[in-house]
Every structure is written in structure tokens, then in C-alpha cells.
Specification:
Largest sheet of chain B: 7 strands, mixed
Distance between the termini of chain B: 36 Å
Strand order of the largest sheet of chain A: 1-3-8-7-6
Mean pLDDT of chain B: 94
Low-confidence stretches of chain A: none
Order of helices and strands of chain A: EEEEEEEEEE
Helix content of chain B: under 10%
Structural class of chain B: mainly beta
Oligomer: heterodimer
Strand content of chain A: over 45%
Low-confidence stretches of chain B: none
Strand content of chain B: over 45%
Radius of gyration of chain B: 13 Å
Number of helices of chain B: 0
Largest interface: A-B, 24 and 24 residues
Chain lengths: ~110, ~120
Amino acid sequence: KQEVTQIPAALSVPEGENLVLNCSFTDSAIYNLQWFRQDPGKGLTSLLLIQSSQREQTSGRLNASLDKSSGRSTLYIAASQPGDSATYLCAPSRAGNNRKLIWGLGTSLAVNP
Amino acid sequence: NAGVTQTPKFQVLKTGQSMTLQCAQDMNHEYMSWYRQDPGMGLRLIHYSVGAGITDQGEVPNGYNVSRSTTEDFPLRLLSAAPSQTSVYFCASSYSNRGGNNEKLFFGSGTQLSVL
């Protein structure tokens, strides 16, 4: 069964630091991978979607990479801000017709002023 | 642009009661889905739909029914609520599940359900 592991589970950093959040998955036969952000008591927001044929995606201060062969994705956050405080989840999707997402438990990030 | 709208935001039920969680999207998305989120567990897919009139089961469908009579709406029905259904429920949609950036998933703000 496909599993997703996110390390670290929690992270607390001072404002301005560059961060790397890690995601590993057991099955390399994924279709694509999304990184989401979840604020407390709210829904999830898709940050980046990396297609299976791509190696990375960038949006502003965020950069996500995907290495299917090693079963890893990383989310890089540059110059972190207090507003980045949230839980970050990665979700690869299975190959095949349904392409259901498989969810990790997330990394809880606190950026301190 | 409202996106994905879920109602109600909070609900308390007694064991055995039934209710419907509402989900509507205004983005003309083909794909809609329901998840539940519980502490210590990843999001789990309950049911999904790839278009009006088409629904299918996810990982944890027991105790829940869905229908998709229109593109916009995808209600989730709890037939006879049980304490094990206490959870936060999220509706999510995407333009399609046929590949490319069309699979970017948009979430509603969730429904906190407690079953006593």
C-alpha cells in the first residue's frame, strides 16, 4: 500500500530562515504530486502541483521538487514569514484512471517574529 | 468567486440521526470528492464523482451516501450517525481528473461534525 511520510512532523523557526520540508512515498509509480497548506480550522489550499514529467515547480518564495525514482519531494520556503505558519501536506496521486491522492500527516510549521 | 462552499460549518447530532452535508462549487468542475480528516490520520476519501450522474466509493464509504444530480452540487448523506463519524469533513473539486494542471484540487472550509 502506498504510504506517505513527512519529516519533520513539526518545525519552529525564526522569521527569515530558509526551510526545507520533506515528503517521501513508497511507490514511484505516481502520476503527479501536490503540496497543500492548511491553516487551523480551515480547508486546504493547493500551493504547487508537479506533473510526473516535471522535476520542480515554483511559485513566489516556494519551490517544490520531485524525484520519482527515489520517492521523494521537497518543499523549499525562502525567507520565511510569520504568515507562512500552517500545516503543509504533500499528496502524490496514484497512476491509473482514478488517480486518487495519498495523504501524509503533514509538517506543522511555526515561523516566529 | 465563491469557489467550494460547504454548509453547515458545525453540526452536532445524536446517534442514529441522519443529515446531509452540502457542497457546492461554482467553477464548473467535473470532479468532486468528500474527505474526512481525523487526528493522527491522513485525509481519507469517502466518495467521489467524475461528473453529473457518476459517483464512486473511496476508502471509507460505509455509512455515507452521495449523489451528483448537477455539476455544481455534491451532497454527502449520513444515513444513521455513529460516534465513529465524528470528524471534520471536507469537500474538494477539480476541473478534471484526466491529467495536467486540471487536477489541482480546491477545498471547501470544512464541516466539524460531532456525533454524541
